Amino acid sequence: MSDITSQSLFELTSNIKEKKLSSEEITKAFISRAEKSKKLNVYVTDNFEKAIDQSKKFDSNPNLDSKLPGIPIAVKDLFCTNGVRTTAGSKILNNFVPTYESTVTQNLWSQGAILLGKLNCDEFAMGSSNETSFFGNVQNPVGENLVPGGSSGGSSAAVAANLTPVTIGTDTGGSIRQPASFTGTVGLKPTYGSCSRYGIVAFASSLDQAGPMTKNVRDCSMLLEVISSFDQKDSTSIDYKRNYYSKELSKDIKGKKIGIPKEYRVDNMPDEIEQLWKNGISYAKDCGAEIIDISLPHTNYALPTYYIVAPAEASSNLARYDGVKYGFRSPGQNLIEMYEKTRSEGFGDEVKRRIMIGTYVLSSGYYDAYYLKAQKVRQLIKKDFDDAFSKVDAILTPSTPSSAFKIGEKTNDPVSMYLNDIFTVPINLAGLPGISIPAGKDKNNYPLGLQVIGKPFDEQNILNISYALEDKINFKNDISDWWLSE
Amino acid sequence: MSKNSEYLIERENKQYEVIIGLEVHAQVTSESKLFSQSSTKFGAEPNTQVSLVDAAFPGMLPVINEFCIEQAIKTGIGLKAKINKKSVFDRKNYFYADLPQGYQISQYKYPIVGEGKVILDMPNGQKEIGIERLHLEQDAGKSIHDIDPNNTLVDLNRSGVALMEIVSKPDLRSPDEVNVYIKKLRSIMRYLGTCDGNMQEGSLRADVNVSVRLKGETEFGTRCEIKNVNSIKFMQMAIISEANRQIDLLEEGKEIDQETRLFDTKRNETRSMRSKEDAHDYRYFPDPDLLPLEISQELIEKITSDIPELPDEKKKRFIDKFNLSPYEATILVSDIETSNFFEEVIKNSDVKLATNWITGELFAVLNEKNLEISQSPVSAKNLSKLINLIKDGTISGKIAKTVFEQMIDGDQDPLIIVKEKGLKQESDPKAIEELINKVIENNSDKVAEYKSGKDKLFGFFVGQAMKESKGKGNPQLINKILKEKLNG
Asked: What angle do CA B12, B16, B22 make, to 5 degrees?
């Protein structure tokens, strides 16, 4: 048997079910590795003591019929966890301990999983490099001083570094898929309405979705099966029949029509990404898929549209952090001064930037030109996909226009940072499911990802295509454990 | 309306008309709040009816309370208004300590209810007031500034309670019309059970828009909005004071600034709260946590079929069926409790007498004791018994008043009072005749005077006979027999 922490979720689950491993052994293995991995800075808050207690409790009376039997899992610190501090990577929630549990994490615990701790992320999920976190940046296990992507950077790094078997992130404009791509891992953003948003600290309500982040496609299907559920506590949750994603997982994609959108060939795209895409196309052909050239004409407008819609919603969603009820408060002589000090000191620069953009685009006199126009363009982008999906079953694109960059490289250039999301953002605007799988490496040996985009509620199809491609690609993450301390 | 009923404010040969529009905030009668399951009960300990949603904890999401939607539709139907099959909840963004989300969920561009109307019964006839719209929104919490000298305290019990904002067209022209309008609106909602209309508990408040113009002018003047006035009396005072302030400005050749004002009840004047330039930019946008609200035709039909008889229809029925005057009918239907009381009384007794007794004696007692009809010291059952005693001649109307006064004390049964006190009317012609004979014998001089032409003395004989009967003689019989004896 290989080292515990390098096992997939599927392997760990099998080993528990076959009583080859106990939950306690597994939990302790991950904790012990975490303690030697502080340099990566993946944890904002650990739950190690309680996790060990819970693993013992599980072992004393194991329910082996559950889908995540005694499996320890760390989650992004955007999910509210009952009794465990939840910060959203922000000073303003530095000491916030929820008395309630998000639906998605509750789904994990209901299937036997155990909370290992809360993973670092960009502040309020605003960022593409995990550098906006109040708790400092995260190191990408792929290489020193490399960003792990964002906003679910702690999550991607933790999976890649074998610090959690799987994790869940959230994706508003690419926050699951981009970090997955940067770390050589798998990340899926489900259809909007698939996973409940109840108990997830909101960034942009019409775009936010939770999703699985894993080492491979099969684990991804197993985790999606657990977290996706209809929830009456979220009015945008959709009641539809979800698949048994892991049971129905199949490499047979013969005859599937896969679209290649010409608009995703952006200027200055590195040759290696172009090559990666070509390879993906030929693998898909090898699997018996039919490749069809398609057009998504409004792709160019996706990024500006996203940077209007998301900040607009964020500016309103973050108004509740005012120092009155919970979280950080900086005292003032009067209410206005308290607000100003609390929010100036409590939020970081990127969050403030987006609150200002959002406030601006919603202001009277600008609303029609920005917010309303963006909503119209959003409909056009959605229609592009609707049209495309009348011809194809799925769409294949690169996940990101580059591999992971150096820490600090883009912090002073927000636009260049935003450009990172160019391939992922349209999918959020259209509410579609998208998955990033590791598909190759660049000249520095840094991982690169391919994205498979599906029709609404067609997660099974993009999982199957990814499963088939994964087999052909046979990606091996080359991680040297450079950060480990004794 | 006839000319002499116009409300005009006079200034040196000039007459100004006052234009009023109301935005009434009516609390929806509902066990739980608009987007959460917390209780809406009034008067609970501060911050005991607050859910995580109401306090805007991270990751909490609003879930619409369908009952409140139905209540709004019901109210819309009661206002003869158009129900919009699609409406949208928007966020109205502003910071305040008692607004936990940092925004109020309201309806801006697409309200649930569109144009409707309310009919006012004014002394000179009916007047129709247009309704512009009705929309649903959350109430804020309450900031309390006068408990702690250094801090403002916040009570979130009210945070998230469902309100209907009912916006009238600028069709009101006088404080009297405002009075009748609010009472009518309240009456309709109480009939429907959609708002209890309790102004003391803040279930009904209004923002009052006032402008003035010279009589005959067709353009509206610049309006000012007086925020959050919570009684009809204060609304009327605020309107008079604000209209006069605006007229004074115009008379001085000054302009009126469009602004939001507050009414200072102690000084009986309005003062500026913020000008148009300082107006909040609320940055309304559709709430992405809530889908657009879609209402099916079936639901509208179902609610329509459950609508009870409303004041206007009830009034018509009372006039047609019971032959009441429009005035009597208006009074009796104005409050659902009153009309229910009335209908209970007339189940077993005479309509005309019941109308008179309820609008006369009973209302006098209620007024005097400052009671609602629901707290009436005399039950409908006992009042109808009393009326029957009058109707069948057991007691006279005069005796009935004595009996009624005793009934007030603990809702006593009039039959028992009459029996115990021996108040039963003497209606035996022989007994009456005997008693009249006695009066005639004892007053032979007066009889002579009467017979010589002093007709006025008839009243004297009635009085004497009544006195002789100790007040119990049947007045009709006394009259009849006296006439026979004296004129015969």
From this structure: 150
Determine which one of A175, A399, A403, A466 is catalytic: A175
Check if A257 is active-site: no
- Residue finishing a domain among A254, A270, A291: A254
Nearest CA in chain A to B285: A362
Write out pLDDT tens, residues A179-201: 999 999 999 999 999 999 999 99
Residue-range definition of the domain harbouring residue B356? 323-421
How far is the C-alpha of B450 from the C-alpha of A250, rounded, in Å? 121
Same domain, A343 and A242: no
Q: Which two tokens stand for residue A297?
A: 């004409």
Q: What is the per-residue pLDDT across B380-424, written as a single tens digit (0 to 9) for each?
A: 999 999 999 999 888 888 889 999 999 999 899 999 998 888 778
The CA distance from A6 to A67, in Å, is 19
Please give the Cα distance from B185 to B80 (Å, whole number): 12
Within a domain: A128: yes
- The domain of A35 spans 4-254
Residue A194 forms contact with B (CB below 8 Å): no
Pairwise CB contact (< 8 Å): B285 & A204 = no
ipTM for the predicted complex:
0.97
Domain membership of residue A475 (yes or no) is no
- Is it the case that residue B5 has pLDDT exceeding 80? no
Q: B407 and B444: one domain?
A: no
Q: Residue A367 falls within a domain, yes or no?
A: yes
Q: Which of residues 198-227 of A touch B (CB under 8 A)?
A: 198-202, 204-206
Tokens read off for B371: 């009671």
Percent of chain B with pLDDT over 90: 76
d(CA B487, CA A220): 115
Task: Tell me: do A229 and A322 sit in the same domain.
Answer: no
pTM for the model stands at: 0.91
